[in-house]
Structure formats: C-alpha cells, structure tokens
Amino acid sequence: MSQFDVTIIGSGPGGYVSAIRCAQLGFKTAIIEKYSTLGGTCLNVGCIPSKALLASSHYYEELQHFADHGIEVSGEVKVNLEKMIARKQAVVDQTSGGVKFLMDKNNITVFNGVGSFESATSVKVTKADGSSEIIESKNIIIATGSKPSNLPFIQLDKDRIITSTEALKLKEVPKHLVIIGGGVIGIELGQVYLRLGAQVSVVEFMDRIIPGMDASLSKELTKVLKKQGMKFYTSHKVQSVERAGDVVTVKAENAKGEIITLEGDYSLVSVGRRPYTDGLNAEKAGVKVTDRGQIEVNDHLQTSASNVYAIGDVVRGAMLAHKAEEEGVMVAEILAGQKPHIDYNLIPGVVYTWPEVAAVGKTEEQLKADGVAYKAGSFPFKALGRARAGGDTDGFVKILADAKTDEVLGVHMIGARCADLIAEAVTAMEFRASAEDISRMSHAHPTFAEAIKEAALAATDNRALHV
Ligand SMILES: Cc1cc2nc3c(=O)[nH]c(=O)nc-3n(C[C@H](O)[C@H](O)[C@H](O)COP(=O)(O)OP(=O)(O)OC[C@H]3O[C@@H](n4cnc5c(N)ncnc54)[C@H](O)[C@@H]3O)c2cc1C
C-alpha cells in the first residue's frame, strides 16, 4: 500500500499547482486524475483551448483589416476549421505534457484513475481497466473542479445541443449558433464562431451580458459585439430547446411575456458550471457537501474532516483557474505550518474577447449597494496614440477610488491587452495604492498602459492630460 504525506484528488490548476507547492515544501506527494491527461478543465477543455481558438479566429478577423494598413492580400482567404481545431489540440497536448513533466521533476507520484474516499486517510483509485489500489495519506486535498451546468428541461445531445466542451471541437462552422447564457464562456466562444462566419445570437436571462462585471463593461462589450454582428436577447428566459434533424429551435420569453423563436443549427448551453464530486464518496471521510454541491470549507479551506482540504471550483468563490492555483498554494503552505492569505477581492476577472475585458475589486454597483462614497475616473483608449497606431481604439479604463482616502477600490477596463494590463491594477491594490499613487508613476509612452495612468489622473482630480 502506498503512503503519502499529501494526496491531491484532481489535476486541474488547483490540484497540480498545489502538488508542486507541496513537493517544494518537502511533502511526499501524490496526485490522482481520472482522465489520461493532466491539467483538468482549464488545460483540456477550458482556458487553454478556448484561448487557442480565440487567437486563431482573431488572426482571421484581423486579416480583413490588413487593407487598412496598406497590406494587400491576394487570393481567397479561407478558414480550415479542422486544422484550426487540430492546432488547438496540439497546444493542449503540449501544455498537458508540460504538467506531466512538472510532476516528474518534482517527484510527485501520479495515479490515473477515479479517486474515492475509503476514510479520511485513505483513497481508493479505480483505474480504467477496473483494477484498483488504496493510497494512505496523512492529508488529502480535494481539487475535483466542476462540470458544465444545464437547465432541467434541456436535453444536451452533445452533437447540436452542446456545452463548451463540444464547442471547442466542432467539425463545421455553424450557420447560426444560438447561445444560451451571456456569461464569459458563452461570449468568448460566441466571438470565435462569429469571426469564423457564423450568425451568433445570445439569449440571456439577466438584463445584460457578463452580468457579474461592472455595468459599464457590459454596455461597452455589447456595443462592440453588436457592431461585429452578434445579436443579443437580454431579459429573455429560455423556455425550450428542441432539435429536429439539423435544426435546433430555441424558444424564450421576453420581459413583455412574448415568446420569441430562434432557429439555429447549433445551440451552445453556457449557463454556468457546477461543482463536481461524483464518485468521490466524500461522506466516507466525514466531508460535508453543501446544498449547492460544493465541498464545505472554512477560511483555511479545511473541510469538516480536519486533515482534508478542498480548493478551486469545487468550493465557494469565483470559478477561475488562478483562484484555484492560489488556493492550492495556500493549503500546501498551511500544511507546512505557514500563515498564507488570499484576498479574494483582488482576484481579477477577465473576458478574452477582443477587445478584452478585465476587472478587479469592487464594481460601481457594489459600492453603491454598500453605501461607499467613491469617485470615478475614466479614460478612453481612442485618446491614446498607441491605440490609434495599432487601430485598437475601442474601450476605456475606469478607476474607482474612495472619495475621502483616494484608495483604489476597483479597476474596470475594456480594450486591447486588458487581460495583461489588469495586473498593474492588482499590484496597485495589493499595496493599497491611491489613485494619485498610480497617477504619479511613469508609464512608458506610447503604451496601452497609459490609459491606467490617465484614468487615475481623472479619478484623482479630474485632470487627465489627453482628453
Ligand atoms: C471554456 C472554458 C474557458 C475557461 N476559461 C478560463 C479562463 O480563461 N481563465 C480562468 O481563470 N478560468 C477559465 N475557465 C475556468 C477554469 O477552467 C476553472 O476555474 C479551473 O479549471 C478550475 O480548476 P480546478 O483545479 O478547481 O478544477 P478542474 O480544472 O475542473 O480540474 C479538476 C480535475 O479533477 C479531476 N477529477 C474529478 N473528480 C475526480 C476523482 N474523483 N478522481 C480523480 N480525478 C478527478 C477531473 O477529471 C479534472 O481533471 C474556463 C472554463 C471553461 C469551461
């Protein structure tokens, strides 16, 4: 029987990063993964493949604007979807192979099979061939992640009524893709197929897309995507999704109680994700699962069994890869007797459309609801030399600062390269910077980052320089 200090169930960004940190701290570490490839949702059917397709489709779309730059492309430009999907898969395989390399390098033992608790200190691994073995471990970390959610009345056939997993490997560009749910995943994949030539309609229950983010970002993203041809049906409640042959019919009720009908050849159901604990037998370890299916944890990510911890999508909080990673590191360090800390308010959120959308801290809606007196400063990308030089002028940066102390409370941005620019805001907020602090820092010219300095100037004293 194998014995370990720490055993991690699930090899997503939470699990594998935690395993590396545990090994660095001197623990004899094992990781169990039910699939044959490591990396979890993020590497296999999430962050990485979606970004690969976003990159490929972005290149295709950019080609249409080459003429503006004086570049004439002769001959037909065509999409080869099969090749695009194969490239995506190659990126995924390489990245997953990289995780395997990191496991070996750190002397982490990898078990392939489904992990299920026998007790709080032993886990049975059932392999694909049906054989099993028992692992004994002083501590166990649950990192089993999440799966796509569905609405109870929708029959997913995974062929034409699909989830994000199937949308990452379609064999043809849909003629009309009807997306149910205007959250991050639906909008990102919608833009991929919009760029490749599909008609894309988004049906959203709330009154705006990306509803968790600052309303100004939803508004600007909607405007840009509408200009690109995406259609939106917000405040629409989906009633039914039916397939007949190659036609998928979606019926939804609008705010006036009228039923609209959309006919497409594919429907992507992207209504969120649910924590995944199937087959885990958490109860055998005395680990409590909430009504929402999440593993219940305290502030130290410890479950109701004191030597069992849980991290990532399977516990409360944002379902994001970098949140899972932070938690993985935190638990490893707690086990080593250290005192790590995560500020959940400073976990950034990003939408990898183009323009990119990124945010950290409080939204204006949250500050208003909390009764916090704040000031706001915005700066549009179109006023930046660098944005005009590159032809990427959509969007803005908005900084929200405390009305009295000037401390930055939230940063919201939409525009080129915002996924990377948000790191400056996270850094500033981690050090509890004021808007004036940011405005006094030198930002290289010409860069997109100058929009952050200008927004900080606008928030400090309404003294942006270039508007
Ligand atoms: C299309 C899409 C795009 C996304 N894009 C982004 C993005 O750009 N940025 C971002 O931050 N997040 C993104 N996400 C979310 C991100 O993928 C998740 O937040 C992240 O993967 C969560 O990590 P995790 O380690 O908690 O779980 P997961 O990555 O879900 O990994 C859990 C692993 O545990 C394994 N497992 C489960 N049960 C068992 C068991 N009993 N025994 C053994 N193994 C088991 C699973 O097979 C899986 O490999 C995206 C998600 C999707 C679907």
Automatic annotation (TrEMBL):
Pfam families: Pyr_redox_2, Pyr_redox_dim. NCBIfam families: lipoamide_DH. Belongs to the class-I pyridine nucleotide-disulfide oxidoreductase family. GO terms for cellular component: cytoplasm. It catalyses: N(6)-[(R)-dihydrolipoyl]-L-lysyl-[protein] + NAD(+) = N(6)-[(R)-lipoyl]-L-lysyl-[protein] + NADH + H(+). PROSITE patterns: PYRIDINE_REDOX_1 (PS00076). Binds 1 FAD per subunit. It is an enzyme of class 1 (oxidoreductase). NAD(+) binds at residues 181-188, 204, 272. Disulfide bonds join 42-47. Its cofactor is FAD. This is Dihydrolipoyl dehydrogenase. The lineage of its organism: Bacteria, Pseudomonadati, Bacteroidota, Flavobacteriia, Flavobacteriales. The gene is lpdA. It comes from Flavobacterium tibetense. Keywords: Disulfide bond, FAD, Flavoprotein, NAD, Nucleotide-binding, Oxidoreductase, Redox-active center.
